[in-house]
Amino acid sequence: MLLSTQTDFLSRAFGDEEALRRVRAAGFDAADFAFFHYGKARRPNPLLLPEKAFLAYFSGLRALCGRMGLPIGQTHAPFPLYRGDGQDEARLELQRRAIWASALLGAPYMAVHPAKPREYRPETMREEAFELNLRLFGGLIPCLEAHGVVLALENLFTYGEDGEIGEAPGSLPAELNRLIDALNEKGPRFAACLDTGHALMLGVKPQAFALKLGKRLKILHAQDNDGRHDQHLLPGLGKVDWPKFLKALKQAKYEGSFSLEADQFPAAFGPGNASESYCLMHGVGRNLVAGRNETRNAK
To answer: pLDDT for 119-138, tens place per residue?
Structure first.
């Protein structure tokens, strides 16, 4: 199993090229390329570049990865996808640009957050959310087919006004499976991205979630937390049972990479300690996928 990590923290701190160099220098086999910080950092959004510059930018990053032997196995779409505020067509166009950029980077999968209707209440709005996502993602099928990319829908959660953790569209396995299957009837361009921490926050064991997704599961966001907060910690610093999760991946015949989305770990130590943080992340991840688990949750 290839070991991967996301570029978000490193890209914010050093820019995309240096982020990829540092991922490779730390020993990772592949990268999960993040688009969602674009427009938030103090630099132009590459997804909005004119076509010639856009092609040069992302093709250049792919060439850099080729020289280093670092494939980009997956990307992460901008979010939110939808707010119901009159700006949603612009958000969809940004998704199309991200799909195109994913193809230029050589990434077969792009993780994306399902859309949530305004003032979402799962007990009364589940079908409305299903239809909304069917329409929005269905509209992206021509773009996905043109660029040969698969959208991997991620399991999410919400915080209520009282701070309580609640369901978002696709939070639970049955609901996510239903949406993926319905979309694939329109065009086979959809899969699942399992975020281990998000599952834990909703009281679903990540290993059980993986088994219920089955063949739909194509990419991971492997992160740990305390079961209450979306902390994006290094495996072993929270409550995920990693040996059981890795066993479930084998049972599910998972063929993707083990991709860490633990950027809050290096963020806690800052850019000045990035090399050391990522080397430790690599070591922990490598031991996990090799079956040499020494996290505190090991049984």
So the answer is: 898 889 999 999 999 999 99
- Residue boundaries of the structural domains of the chain: 3-289
Q: Residue 170's beta-bridge partner residues?
A: none
Instruction: Report the distance separating Cα 233 and Cα 204, nearest Å.
Output: 18
Cβ–Cβ under 8 Å, residues 103 and 148: yes
Assess contact for 244 and 211: CB atoms under 8 A: no
Phi, psi of 75 (to 5 degrees): -125, 170
Torsion from C-alpha of 170, 153, 158, 33, nearest 10 degrees: 170
Q: Which fold has domain 3-289?
A: TIM Barrel (3.20.20)
Q: Is the peptide bond before 80 cis (omega within 30 degrees of 0)?
A: yes
Instruction: Return the pLDDT at 183.
Output: 98
Residue 11 burial class via C-beta count within 10 angstroms: exposed 0-12, middle 13-18, buried 19 and up: buried
- Which residue from 221, 114, 248, 121 is spatially nearest to 177, judged by alpha carbons? 114
DSSP string, 91-154: HHHHHHHHHHHHHHHT-SEEEEPPP--TT--HHHHHHHHHHHHHHHHHTTHHHHHHHT-EEEEE
| pLDDT tens digit sequence for 181-198 | 999 999 999 999 999 999
SS3 of 166, please?
strand
Beta-bridge partners for 154: 193
> Taking the CB of residue 118, how many other CB atoms lie within 10 A of it?
9
Q: Is the Cβ–Cβ distance between 73 and 4 less than 8 Å?
A: yes
- The pTM (predicted TM-score) of the whole model is 0.95
d(CA 24, CA 191): 27
List, for the chain, all residue ranges whose pLDDT scores fall below the cut of 70: 41-42, 292-299
